[in-house]
């Protein structure tokens, strides 16, 4: 268990040091201060849950970035798992605040079915956690993560918990989550571990009736929803879980269930488990006698009856007031309905809604106004204020305080402190903005101010994912990028060029290749690089191409294998480099990318396959030092090698550090890796001879690292992109 640059001159000196050595023990850490680069949420948050025990207390769970708690005093979201080093535990399957004690909260954590899963308990609102590994698998980042809540705390006896498993039926604990056993009488046993790419909904929610709950006595009525075809959608127990009876339900999957303060159960149904497969759905109400009736909003039916209902919330302070929301309503767009008379009448709040995204302008990144949102599965009404409503989308969390009024409903992002994105690539140019990033789903941004949510900048072309970025070393306002597109968007260009530091872009298109001719550049696999003066661009298509006129004309590159990524020298515009992994050779171009030929590469290992990282999102294992011609760094496997003579000779440059990722800074070399049994973020001031750890046990972010780069203008500054907890920048503690 676990508790919780002058540029050229300065850069010419950046990575000079002694010969590499081997350290017997890990060195002492260098204190760093870490901060998120502000975007403001950015990813899918499957649900938000208010505490019924204290006003202003709420929790948010995400699919790959951990959980957050709302701090009402300081008015920001507090990340609760930055000290967690277990990757899988950043995928939160469910979250349940104790209904009586506001200090106690539980989480079910597990990213995928074949990764470690645990139930976490905190007695200090998530500051520290007791972690209990469990025998049932979870899927916090699998299809169906918007179902729930699967984890429930008995309001009568808070030491009793139930958990609805995706794969293994219903489970319970009678000692506050320390030990778990399967509920023997529950009729749905589960389907076991899924096949690859197969998703199980399983027991989708557990809802315990709070009426009549007496301290120390276990509640008797328990509802369990099932999102498994042919297994019965809804089950009820009136004896604390010993026996179960099937309830009336539509021929759909039970997605979300909530019991109000009177003991009335409200269920959202869908024909898919979400977030992208729901075609139809329904809303049902179940009275105290257990009988159910269809209360689906009528205008949902008349508008096409499209999309499932994965958002359901009750107003505990106003019985009979309920909100529901759709998911995958592609025709009319997703919306939210509210009833104040137990489902007799519903009002579509979408028509009255306005959204102010001035604090999160990145939400306009697709070139359209802020709509109601997509992938809406989280929906909550403040138990102490029926006018305070929040819902989650695939990119943000919206909230309003005006749901009770009769005029326009004003929504705004409720995201201060939340950074939940996947960073694919980044650069810190020698001029212009300090940071340019490539994101998954959100394209990427030019970060001129690291503390403010950025304006949309990666347009023309718009790419959902940015896979590679490069800048011209002597003309840093020239930036190029490549990426991939959503399947339902027109495929016209997947490469872009900017000559003003990323403020504006023009598409770059490579001629068709092969027989029959095909646009190989549109597959998202082709990386792009730019010469030091910005005049030449190389694109690693099946037949690598070079242009010197901004893409108006192209010529095939000689001597360069297809799909081989190139790296431009940051000083000499005639020089490019590449690793021929299959031939085990380092290649160089001295004619501005027109042709490549092998260079000696003395000192490199014979096997260079590890230096050719696979996949379009993989970072280059070969980097050129800014401000220094012919200065190269190459990662082969877990070892670094350095050349100061254009690749003629290399020397080992990682010492005892086992390297996963590395980046170059003004005066330092940075890496993600393991030394002395400690995995973390490391810095070297002597060309990799020795290393100092610069992260700490409070900043682990699940160990989900994607990219690292130093700042060529600011000594000590490093940028780290994670897979789920956003983008960070770190500075020596004494530097700020």
TrEMBL record:
<keyword id="KW-0119">Carbohydrate metabolism</keyword>
<dbReference type="GO" id="GO:0000272">
    <property type="term" value="P:polysaccharide catabolic process"/>
</dbReference>
<dbReference type="GO" id="GO:0016798">
    <property type="term" value="F:hydrolase activity, acting on glycosyl bonds"/>
</dbReference>
<comment type="similarity">
    <text>Belongs to the glycosyl hydrolase 74 family.</text>
</comment>
<keyword id="KW-0326">Glycosidase</keyword>
<protein>
    <submittedName>
        <fullName>BNR-Asp box repeat-containing protein</fullName>
    </submittedName>
</protein>
<keyword id="KW-0732">Signal</keyword>
<keyword id="KW-0624">Polysaccharide degradation</keyword>
<feature type="signal peptide">
    <location>
        <begin position="1"/>
        <end position="24"/>
    </location>
</feature>
<dbReference type="GO" id="GO:0010411">
    <property type="term" value="P:xyloglucan metabolic process"/>
</dbReference>
<dbReference type="InterPro" id="IPR052025">
    <property type="entry name" value="Xyloglucanase_GH74"/>
</dbReference>
<dbReference type="InterPro" id="IPR015943">
    <property type="entry name" value="WD40/YVTN_repeat-like_dom_sf"/>
</dbReference>
<keyword id="KW-0378">Hydrolase</keyword>
């Amino acid at each position: 268990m676990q508790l919780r640059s002058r540029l050229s001159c300065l850069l010419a000196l950046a990575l000079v040091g002694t010969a590499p050595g081997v350290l017997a023990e890990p060195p002492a850490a260098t204190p760093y201060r870490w901060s998120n680069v502000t975007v403001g949420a950015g990813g899918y948050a499957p649900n938000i849950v208010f505490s019924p025990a204290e006003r202003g207390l709420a929790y948010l769970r995400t699919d790959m970035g951990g959980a957050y708690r709302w701090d009402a005093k300081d008015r920001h979201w507090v990340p609760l798992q930055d000290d967690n080093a277990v990757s899988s535990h950043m995928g939160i399957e469910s979250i349940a605040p104790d209904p009586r004690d506001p200090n106690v909260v539980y989480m079910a954590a597990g990213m995928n079915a074949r990764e470690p899963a645990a139930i976490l308990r905190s007695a200090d609102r998530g500051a520290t956690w007791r972690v209990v590994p469990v025998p049932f698998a979870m899927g916090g980042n699998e299809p169906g993560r918007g179902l729930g809540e699967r984890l429930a705390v008995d309001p009568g006896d808070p030491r009793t918990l139930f958990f609805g498993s995706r794969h293994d039926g219903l489970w319970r604990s009678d000692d506050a989550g320390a030990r778990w056993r399967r509920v023997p009488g529950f009729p749905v046993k589960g389907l076991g571990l899924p096949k690859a790419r197969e998703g199980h909904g399983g027991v989708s929610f557990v809802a315990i009736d709070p009426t009549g709950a007496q301290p120390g006595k276990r509640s008797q009525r328990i509802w369990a929803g099932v999102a498994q075809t042919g297994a019965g959608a809804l089950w009820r127990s009136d004896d604390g879980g010993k026996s179960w009876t099937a309830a009336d339900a539509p021929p759909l999957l039970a997605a979300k269930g909530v019991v109000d303060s009177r003991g009335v159960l409200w269920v959202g149904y869908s024909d898919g488990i979400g977030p992208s497969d729901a075609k139809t759905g329904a809303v049902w109400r179940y009275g105290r006698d257990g009988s159910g009736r269809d209360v689906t909003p009528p205008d949902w039916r008349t508008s096409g009856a499209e999309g499932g209902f994965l958002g359901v919330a009750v107003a505990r302070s106003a019985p009979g007031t309920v909100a529901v929301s759709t998911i995958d309503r592609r025709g009319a767009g997703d919306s939210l309905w509210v009833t104040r008379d137990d489902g007799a009448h519903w009002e579509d709040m979408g028509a009255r809604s306005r959204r102010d995204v001035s604090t999160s302008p990145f939400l306009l990144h697709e070139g359209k106004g802020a709509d109601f949102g997509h992938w809406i599965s989280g929906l909550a009404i403040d138990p102490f204020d029926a006018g305070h409503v929040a819902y989650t989308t695939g990119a943000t969390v919206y909230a309003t305080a005006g749901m009770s009024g009769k005029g326009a409903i004003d929504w705004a992002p409720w995201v201060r402190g939340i950074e939940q994105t996947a960073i694919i690539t980044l650069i810190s140019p020698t001029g212009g903005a300090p940071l340019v990033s490539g994101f998954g789903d959100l394209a990427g941004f030019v970060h001129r101010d690291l503390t403010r949510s950025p304006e949309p900048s990666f347009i023309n072309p718009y790419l959902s994912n940015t896979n590679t970025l490069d800048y011209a070393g002597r003309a840093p306002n020239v930036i190029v990028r490549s990426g991939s597109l959503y399947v339902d968007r027109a495929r016209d260009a997947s490469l872009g060029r900017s000559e003003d530091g990323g403020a504006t872009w023009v598409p770059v298109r490579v001629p068709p290749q092969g027989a029959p001719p095909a646009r190989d550049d549109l597959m998202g696999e082709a990386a792009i690089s730019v010469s030091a003066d910005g005049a030449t661009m190389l694109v690693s298509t099946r037949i690598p191409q070079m242009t010197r006129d901004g893409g108006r004309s192209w010529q095939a590159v000689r001597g360069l294998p297809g799909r081989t990524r190139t790296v431009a020298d940051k000083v000499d515009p005639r020089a490019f480099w590449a690793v021929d992994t299959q031939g085990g050779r380092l290649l160089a171009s001295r004619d501005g990318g027109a042709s490549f030929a092998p260079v000696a590469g003395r000192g490199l290992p014979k096997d260079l396959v590890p230096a050719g990282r696979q996949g379009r999102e993989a970072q280059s294992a070969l980097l050129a030092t800014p401000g220094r011609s012919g200065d190269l760094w190459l990662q082969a496997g877990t070892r670094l090698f350095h050349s100061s003579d254009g690749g003629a000779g290399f020397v080992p440059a990682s010492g005892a550090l086992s390297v996963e990722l590395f980046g170059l800074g003004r005066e330092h070399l940075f890496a993600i890796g393991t030394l002395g049994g400690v995995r973390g973020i490391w810095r070297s001031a002597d060309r990799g001879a020795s290393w100092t750890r610069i992260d700490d046990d409070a900043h682990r972010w699940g160990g989900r690292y994607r990219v690292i780069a130093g700042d060529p203008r600011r000594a000590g500054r490093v940028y780290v992109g994670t897979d789920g907890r956003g983008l960070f920048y770190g500075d020596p503690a004494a530097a700020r």
